[in-house]
Amino acid sequence: MLRHWLYVVPLPLLEAGLLLSWSSGFIGARFSIHYAPALLVVFWRFLVLALLLFPFVCRELVTTPFRVLVKHAAIGLLAMAGYMLGVTQGIAFGVPAGLAALCADLLPVGMALLAGVFLRERLAHQIWLGLIVGLAGVLWVTHDALGLGDAPLWAYSLPVAGMLSLAVATLWQKRARSTRSMGLLANLWLQCFVSCLVFAVIEGSQGSLAPVPSAGFVLSVLWTASLPTFGGYGLYWICLRRSSATRVATLLYLSPPITLLWAWAMFGEPLSWQMALGMALSSLGIWLVVRTESRQAARAA
């Protein structure tokens, strides 16, 4: 049986696509807030994808065991609904966007701590060094955008909770024995569907779920549904199946500087040498993690 073409494409190309797609989500969110409430756009992005993908996955969904559907639905709730709800609601309660994004960028460290505490996994010292160096690069790039804001103290835990939600989902997806019993497209549909239900309840309790009749709203939904969701989460799960959870999460250290490049290209925001140095530092941290894991794999073989 021939492998799907996405499993034949070189992993670095998929990782490059992941970075471009993932970082586009922050740009889409910034663009969309001018046209509609953030959670309304989130609801419609998941609804659009669920409707478009359903004809392609309905046959597989019918033949998939119920327990597998429940497991993947729970992973989707953590990875999509939990992550996005924590970050967006934290910002809504007054947490500065830069600080919320930094909490999300702690994903590699959060995963390493969760794996160590609950799974008794131990990372090599070189991997920890790479995680710390990569995080230092993120701090270097984003420190001008950081601030404490005037949010209530409990609100600062929301972005951290969102990051931990995605970390748990990543480790669960990687370790679940039944991951390969469900196709990637069906898995993505299920996660979008359950997330759609969650945001329908949340946004519906605050106001109408009707779409805003404007070209800006339509473009916001199409942008966030295609690039960050279909492209970003789709490539995230593909890369996770082809490499380690630590490598995939650490790769996202490059998301903030790439987001700044997006902002420069689309909104004319200035670039600086500080951003370039921070990106180089994050790249060094990622290289340390990838090199160490490659050496460990070679010794194991």
UniProtKB/TrEMBL annotation:
Its main location: membrane. The keyword Transmembrane applies. It is found in: Cell membrane. Signal peptide: none annotated. Residues 19-141, 154-290 form the EamA domain. Keywords: Cell membrane, Membrane, Plasmid, Transmembrane, Transmembrane helix. It is a multi-pass membrane protein. The chain crosses the membrane at residues 7-29, 35-56, 68-85, 91-116, 123-141, 153-172, 184-202, 214-236, 248-265, 271-290. GO terms for cellular component: membrane. PANTHER family: EAMA DOMAIN-CONTAINING PROTEIN (PTHR32322:SF2), INNER MEMBRANE TRANSPORTER (PTHR32322). Belongs to the EamA transporter family. This is DMT family transporter. It comes from Candidatus Pantoea soli. The lineage of its organism: Bacteria, Pseudomonadati, Pseudomonadota, Gammaproteobacteria, Enterobacterales.
